[in-house]
Amino acid sequence: MLPPVPTPAALARLHALCFGTPRPWSEVEFSSLLRDGSVFLTGGGRDAGGADNSGFALGRVIADEAELLTLAVHPDHRRKGRGRALLSTYENEAVRRGATRSFLEVSSANHAAITLYAQAGYRQTGQRPGYYRTPDGGRIAALTFSRHLV
């Protein structure tokens, strides 16, 4: 029997634990994304009630390009290889869906994620100055990364 798929509400709760900048996504946003046939969810680590509590990756594939939309690891599960495992699962699913290249963007202040992506072979390809708004009203750049998958 397959484990239950996390609900948009559960994804939004976990995302809120993980992000301040960029802002966490809402249940409505997750629900909308999950209805899009090009979007896929990878994750695992179920609690006793079957809810995903350790992390997830959300991606999309269009033609031969994949985009990592978000990757969230519960604060209690960080620094244990969970982010790398989720990234790898996302990449494998993207390849299965026909992607040959992956793209992502990340806050320039998210040093842990930048390190994860660099260690996984992603290279910075650009920068979007002032792209993200911080909770205090400031602005932070988004860094864009990509890598070949096959």
Task: Tell me about this structure.
The protein has 150 residues and is of the alpha+beta class. The chain has one domain: Aminopeptidase, CATH 3.40.630. β5 and β6 form a beta hairpin. The longest helix has 15 residues. It is globular. The model has no long low-confidence stretch (mean pLDDT 90).
Short description:
The chain has 150 residues and is an alpha+beta fold. It has 4 helices and 6 strands, in the order ααβββαβαββ. Strands 1-2-3-4-6-5 form a 6-stranded mixed sheet, with helices on both faces.
What brief labels describe this structure?
alpha+beta, six-stranded mixed β-sheet, globular, Aminopeptidase, 6 strands, 150 residues
Helix and strand layout, with pairings?
Blueprint: H1 8-18, H2 27-34, E1 39-46, E2 52-62, E3 65-73, H3 82-96, E4 101-107, H4 111-119, E5 123-133, E6 139-148
Parallel strand pairs: 3-4
Antiparallel strand pairs: 1-2, 2-3, 4-6, 5-6
Helix pairs in contact: 1-2
**What's the CATH first level?**
Alpha Beta
The separation of the N and C termini measures: 31 Å
CATH 2nd-level architecture: 3-Layer(aba) Sandwich
The CATH topology is given as Aminopeptidase
> Measured on Cα atoms, how large is the radius of gyration?
15 Å
Low-confidence stretches: none
Mean pLDDT: 90
Largest beta-sheet details: 6 strands, mixed
**Strand percentage:** 35-45%
Estimate the helix proportion, in percent. 25-40%
Provide the structure class.
alpha+beta
Shape: globular
From N to C, what is the helix and strand string?
Answer: HHEEEHEHEE
Number of separate domains: 1
Number of strands: 6
What assembly state would you assign to the polypeptide chains in this entry?
single chain
How many helices? The count is 4
CATH superfamily: Gcn5-related N-acetyltransferase (GNAT)
> What spatial order of strands do you see in the largest sheet?
1-2-3-4-6-5
